Amino acid sequence: MSHSTTGLLRRGSEGVAVADVRARLIALPEGQLADRAGLEGAEVRSDLYDEPLERAVRAFQQQHGLIADGVVGPETFAAIDGARWALGDRILVHTPGHLQHGEDVRSLQERLNTLGFAAGRVDGWFGETTEHAVRAFQRAYGLPGDGSVGPDTLRAFTDLQRSVSGGSSTLLRERERVRRAGHSLSGRTVVLDPGHGGDDPGATSNGLTEAAVVLDLARRIEGRLTAIGVDVVYTRTESTCPSEEERAGIANQAGADVVLSLHCDSHDHVDAAGVATFFFGRDRASSWSPVGEHLADLLQREIVARTPLRNCRSHGRSWSLLQRTTMPAVRIEAGYLSHPEDAALLADPAFRDTLAEAVLVSLQRVYLGEDDTNQTGVLRLGDLRAYLSARA
Questions:
Q1: What is the mean predicted confidence (pLDDT) over 113-133?
Q2: C-alpha to C-alpha distance for 131 and 134, rounded to whole angstroms
Q3: How far, in Å, CA of 125 to CA of 105, rounded?
Q4: Those residues with Cβ within 8 angstroms of residue 196's Cβ, 6 or more apart along the chain or in another chain
Q5: Residue 363 and residue 4: Cα distance in Å, rounded?
Q6: What does the pLDDT look like over 260-307, one tens digit per residue?
Q7: CB 244 within 8 Å of CB 193
C-alpha cells in the first residue's frame, strides 16, 4: 500500500501507513477528533484499516471541512498532520516554498485578525500575509520585527485583550471589499479553473470526459464575461494539469476578484445526480468566506431555477483551492457524468450555454448587494447590460 501522503488508504488497507494514520489520530489533542472509540486497545490490530478507524477518519473529515468519505488521501493526511500542533508547540516562521501548516498557525491568524493585524484568511498556512501581520504586531508592541513566532511573541499575545469585537475582522473586511467595489463587473478579474486537464481526464462516463466538458463550459463563461469587460484568467490549458496549490497561486498572483472552479461529478451509484456548489467554510467564527458562501448560494439557486438538475445544495469545505486563495472561490459540481440524464444534459451545447448564463448572472448579483431585488432564474445577459447602463 502506498504511503498515505501520496496514495489512498481506505477500509481493508493494511500496512505501516495505516498504523501511522491510526497513531496520529490517537495523538491528536482534545477537540481535534470527535470519535476515538475503538482506535486502540489490546485487541486492536494497529496496521489494519478497520471500521473504527474509518469512523474516526470520517469524524475528523467532517469536523475539518473535508469530504467525509473515510478515505485518507493527501489532503486528509495533511489535515491530520497539521491538527497535532497547538500554538506554542513550535516556533513559527515563514519559509517560501515550504510553508508551515497546522492548527497553531490557524490560532495565530485568528489572534492577529482579532487584534487588528490583517493576517488574511484563517487557513492554517504561514504565508507572506501572515508574516507581515506578525511583523506589524511585533513592531507595535516593542518586539524585534523578525516575523517569527517564538516565546516572546507568544507571551505578548497572552498579555493582550481583544481589540475587535462583534464578529471576525477578516469576514467584515471581505464583505466591505465587495461593497466598496461597486456594482459593475466590468474591469474585474475572474479566474476560471476548469478541473483536471493534461493527463488527468477526471470523471469519464456516458461518452463524456470531465476535463473536456468543463473546459468547454469555461470558454462559454469566458465569452460572456469578456463581453461586459471582465478580465478572465485560466488556471490551465488543454495540455496542463496544475496542482490545487498551483491553481490557487495563479489566482493570487493575478489579484483576482473571484475564482470559479468547474467540475462534474461521478459515482458508482447510478442514482447519484444533481448540481452542488462549495465555498471555503470550516466554521463561521473565522475560517469561512461569507462572500464565497453568498456566491455559492446564488450559483446553486440560479442553476437549479434554469435547469432540470437536482438540487444538491451548497456546502462549506476546506479544500486546498478554496482555502489557499485570498479571494472568494467557489467550486461547481455541474451534474454527474455517471447519471444518464445529467450526462445527456451536459452533452448538449445549449445546456452548457444555460449554465454559463447562470454563472454570469450569479457573479453580477454578488456585486449588486442590497440593491439586488431580482427574481432568481429570470435575468439574462441583455438585462444585465441594460441595468448597468442605466446606473452608469
A1: 89
A2: 5
A3: 6
A4: 202, 210, 211, 214, 241, 263
A5: 38
A6: 999 999 988 889 999 999 999 876 666 788 899 999 999 999 999 999
A7: no
